[in-house]
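Hi Y.,

Following your request, here is the sequence exactly as I used it, all 428 residues.
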Amino acid sequence: MMTIRMHMDSKYCDKVLVIGGGIAGLASAYYLAKSGRQVTLIERGDLTDGCSFGNAGMIVPSHFTPMAAPGIVSQGIKWMFDRKSPFYVKPSLNWSLLTWGMRFLQHANEKHVLRASPALKDLHLYSSQLYDQLATELSTDFDLQHKGILMLYKTGSTEEEEIHLANRARDMGLDVAVLNKDEVQALEPGVKLDVLGAVHYKCDGHLYPPALIQTLISELKKMGVELQTGVQVEGFDLKAGRIEKTYLSDGGQIQANQIVLTGGAWMGNLARKVNLSIPIMPGKGYSFLTDVFEGKVQHPALLMEARVALTPMGGKVRIGGTMELAPIDHQINLNRVEGIVKAVGSYYPEYNLNMPEKKDIWFGFRPCSPDGLPYLGYSRKVSNLVLAGGLGMMGLSLGPAIGQSVADLINGKTLQADIQIFDPERFN
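Below is the corresponding structure, written out as tokens. Let me know if you'd prefer a different format.
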């Protein structure tokens, strides 16, 4: 645990502006309002079109390894030449992508993983505890379940990698079981599985993201949080190292004592408006819902060789995957979606899914940092600015821990997780 000094002044002393309406922004607004702060939240979209709304809904202490890890570079190069692969970096002379890639390469090593894993694991576990509290605090059920997640694998090489990670997870105190084919099948009696085995991370959980987001929005309104949607930040009035005003695209302006910058995949662009370098690369992912499993799948699963996620939710199953690293675009790459669809039948051979209609395919942009770690903490250059983002594929899992940590930072309270490694200006 660590104590952070409180940033206050006599003017606007209780008002906080939260920029960004993903799970990090919504959770920050919730915990700030709960602590008595006057909160305004602004969002460029409508609060239902971000990654937090359409993702796999997994709570994952199992994801203690950052994306920048040994082996990901060589595997990524192989995937680059497969138009249906789960990973793709669009060739580009874009300077942001090139510098992001160089930093990623610098961090894709065992030393970085060993340094980052304990802090990531602790933040995930803290967030899982907060989800349990939210399940009792919020007025509507968001289908929180603690069945764990199955890491399904089909090949010996993947089995070796997953057992190695499982042993590391056990050493870190996580509840993990390595299962053979028959043991996995016993956990999923309603469907036939074609797998070699699985690692069951019993420490993980899942929920229904749309219900969570809608419930948080409803609670924020009840708490008196001002929600402004469809507006963007045009600029900031920066004086003597602090933000005095925030200028909006609709011509409005907001004065607040504290600013929380989340902003998802747009966080880096927003940070540049106050002369900060916060490297973020959008990682586009796709998902769709299907009812073909007829409620027979009991456990969320990651199909490890295919890098596809499968989660029962809302009476259906959400299937998602891919990581397309490129500047933001709003085109649906049907080849990538086809790769997701075909992968499912390889693990669940009774189910050969049809391609979803284009209108039924959701996509969103994961905000990826080059070292695979969140940005969380006060800016050293802008005294009243807290940055909270860069959560990559872990956004929903880490949301409550990010939000509560933001509230504790602003209120000068002792943090329940060590966030030093998540220094938001570590690349400045």
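The longest strand covers residues 281-290.

Thanks again,
Q.
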